[in-house]
Amino acid sequence: MKNNSYTCKTFLIIFHGLFLPFLFIILSNIQASAMIHELTLEQLVQSSDAIAIVDTLAVKAVGTLPSGFGVVANLVKVYQPLMGSLAVGETFKVKTWLAEDNAEMVKGGRYLLFLKKEKDYFVVTAGIMGAWPINKKEEFLGYGIGRKISDVEAVIEKEINAEKKPVPEKAKMERKAVISL
User: Fold this and answer.
1) Cα separation, 43 vs 117, whole angstroms
2) Structure pTM?
3) 36-75, pLDDT tens digit by residue?
4) How far, in Å, CA of 69 to CA of 74, rounded?
5) CA quadruple 86, 88, 91, 97: dihedral positive or negative?
6) What is the DSSP track for 5-47?
7) For residue 30, what pLDDT is reported?
8) What does the alpha-carbon distance between residue 77 and residue 149 come to, in Å, rounded to a whole number?
9) Distance between CA atoms of 103 and 180, rounded to whole angstroms?
10) CA-to-CA distance for 90 and 72, rounded, in angstroms?
11) Parts of the chain with a pLDDT under 70
12) 94 phi and psi, to 5 degrees?
């Protein structure tokens, strides 16, 4: 009987001392995969009701969902409309959520936003993928890094020709001015 207890204790020591650390090392080296499905620029444009470069005037937490995510109301002003019925200088609300992979806007920040129209406000298309911060050098950051405004305008033009979505008059005039140069 005494030999059985030693055998059991020896097994437990070996199991805890060797096998569990080995298992931990194996499991910690397994690569995780992301849950977010990245959209192409074409898909972002196709999924959006409006696209504009905006300046953020105010950011205010307005509540919490039952899931625990915070709801944020962002007041923005259109700097340059690219697609949809927005006009230069127009202000409107963009609702975002305090959750992983959602757009987070900062007061005073400038963004290229891909937008979906909801009741009396907009939401950012595809969360963080649809809000491209713009730095002081007027370069896109986030999912827009490496892109130029001309890339976005080319896809919008292609989409407009395919579906006949409205283009703001100012955006049409600016595109014609750039093309004629």
Assistant:
1) 16
2) 0.72
3) 678 999 999 999 999 999 999 999 999 999 999 999 999 9
4) 16
5) positive
6) HHHHHHHHHHIIIIIHHHHHHHHHTSPP-----PPPHHHHHHT
7) 63
8) 18
9) 36
10) 20
11) 1-36, 164-181
12) -125, 120
